[in-house]
Amino acid sequence: MPQWLTDGAAHVWRPYCQMKTAPAPLAVARTDGARIILEDGRELVDGIASWWTACHGYNHPHIRAAVTAQLERAPHVMFGGLAHEPAYRLASRLAALLPGELDHVFFAESGSVAVEISMKMALQYWINRGVAGRTKFVSFLGGYHGDTLATMTICDPEEGMHGLFAGVMPAQHVVAMPRDLGSEAALDSLLSAKGSEIAALIVEPRVQGAGGMVLHDDSVLATLRRLADKHGLLLIFDEIFTGFGRTGDLFACTGSGVIPDIVTLSKALTGGTLPLSAAIASRRVFEAFWSDDAGAALMHGPTYMANPLACAAANASLDLFEDGAWKADVARINAALAEGLEPCRKAPGVVDVRTLGAIGVVEFEDAVDTGDLCVKFAERGCWIRPMGKVVYLTPPFVTSDAELSRLTGAICEVVAGS
Ligand SMILES: *Cc1c(COP(=O)(O)O)cnc(C)c1O
C-alpha cells in the first residue's frame, strides 16, 4: 500500500461505504484509454467508465489539449456578470444538438444539483405563471436522481440509498412506470386527482441507471408526454446517465422522438474529465422567467457554475462526438456485451441478462456483495463495481474487442462461481 493511502485512510470519508468493514480502495497511479493503472503495477480494464463518465476513454489527447490551453488562458472566473467563450459556445452547441426548443442552458457542477435546478425551474414556472399550489413532483419506482435532500425525495424509496431519511423531506408521488394499460390508468387517475398540486413529472428516459439498470420502451416516454400534456404538467428528462451516446442515440430524447420541457445532463458531458452539469429548459419554460419583474428571475448560481476548464473539456468532447464514430463503437460494444454475457443466463441466482446500447446487465435475484465482487473482478484484470442486484458494464466507447472479452469473461467466470 502506498504511504499516502495508509496516511490518508484515517481522514478520507469514502462514498457509499461502511468505512469499518469495506475492503481498502485500490490505489490508482494513472489512467490510459480504457485502463486504470494501479500503484502496484496492475492494469485494470474499466468496465464502468468511472461511474459512466469516461465515454471517450481516459486521457484523450484532444480533451487534454483543450483543457491545457484553457488552463493557461483562464482556469475559472465567476459567471455572475462575466461571460467566457467556452460556456457560451457549449450552450449554443447543446441547444443545437437537443431537439425541439430545448434552447436555454443553466450550468452547474454536479448531476444532483442540475436535477435540483430542474425542480426549482418547474416550481417557479408555475409561480411565475400565477398558478399557486403546484409544489409536488411525480417520479418513478426504480428511479435515481441524486443524493441531495430534494433529489432524494424523487428517488425510489426502497431501491434508493436514502431509506433512512423517510419523513425528513416532503413526500412526492413515486409511482409505477406506465409500462402497461394498468399502470398507465393508475398514473392517469393520480394526475386527475392530484394534478393541480403537481409541478412536473421526472423520469430517467430508457434506462433507470443507479436504481438497477432497468429498461423501458420509448412508448412509455410517449405515454408520459401524452399524460403530461393532458394534465397540463411539465415533463423533465433526467439524461444524466443516458446522455451522450450511452443508449445508442446521442440523447434518449433525440432517439425516442419524445421531447421533454427540461432535460438534465452531466456524467459524460465532459468526457469524464471535470465536473459539470446542465439543466436545459424549453422556450416555453424559459419564457415564464422572461419579465420586467426582477422577482421572476431564476435565483440560482453555483460558485463554480460553467467552470471554463470543464466547459472547454465538454466542447472538446462534443468535437469527438461530431465525427460520428461513436455510433459504430456503441453498436460494436452492444454486440460484444450481448454475446459475452449470454452464458451468465444459466448461472445460479441470475434472473436476467439484458443490453441496450453500450450497457450490459446481469441481474440477480438478490443483492450481491459489491466489495467481494470488486476484488474478484480486479483479480481478473477488470474494474467492475456492481450495485444492488446488478453486475453491469458501461465501458468507454474506445474499449477494444479484446478488452470487452476480458470484461465479459470475468463476469461469466465470477458469476459461475469459479
Ligand atoms: C448520477 C446521476 C445523478 C446524480 O449525479 P451526481 O453528479 O452524482 O450528483 C442524477 N441522475 C441520474 C440519472 C444519475 O445517473
Name the descriptors.
7-stranded mixed sheet; alpha/beta; single chain; 4-stranded mixed sheet; 418 residues; binds pyridoxal-5'-phosphate; 36% helix
Structure description:
Belongs to the class-III pyridoxal-phosphate-dependent aminotransferase family. BioA subfamily. Pathway: Cofactor biosynthesis; biotin biosynthesis; 7,8-diaminononanoate from 8-amino-7-oxononanoate (SAM route): step 1/1. Keywords: Aminotransferase, Biotin biosynthesis, Cytoplasm, Pyridoxal phosphate, S-adenosyl-L-methionine, Transferase. Catalyzes the transfer of the alpha-amino group from S-adenosyl-L-methionine (SAM) to 7-keto-8-aminopelargonic acid (KAPA) to form 7,8-diaminopelargonic acid (DAPA). It is the only aminotransferase known to utilize SAM as an amino donor. By secondary structure, the protein is of the alpha/beta class. Helices cover 36% and strands 17% of the residues. The strands form 4 sheets. The chain has a 7-stranded mixed sheet, with helices on both faces. A 4-stranded mixed sheet has the order 1-2-3-15. A 3-stranded antiparallel sheet has the order 13-14-16. Pyridoxal-5'-phosphate binds next to helix 5.
Give the topology string: H per helix, E per strand.
Answer: HEEEHHHEHEHEHEEEHEHEEHHHEEHEEH
Ligand identities: pyridoxal-5'-phosphate
Number of strands: 16
Q: Please mark out the parts with pLDDT under 50 across 5 or more consecutive residues, or reply none.
A: none
Structural classification: alpha/beta
**Computed Rg:** 21 Å
Provide mean pLDDT, rounded.
Answer: 96
Oligomeric nature of the chains = single chain
Strand content: 15-25%
Helix content: 25-40%
Strand order of the largest sheet: 4-12-11-10-7-5-6
* Tally of helical segments: 14
From the N-terminal CA to the C-terminal CA, the straight-line distance is 28 Å
Largest sheet: 7 strands, mixed
Q: So what's the overall shape?
A: globular
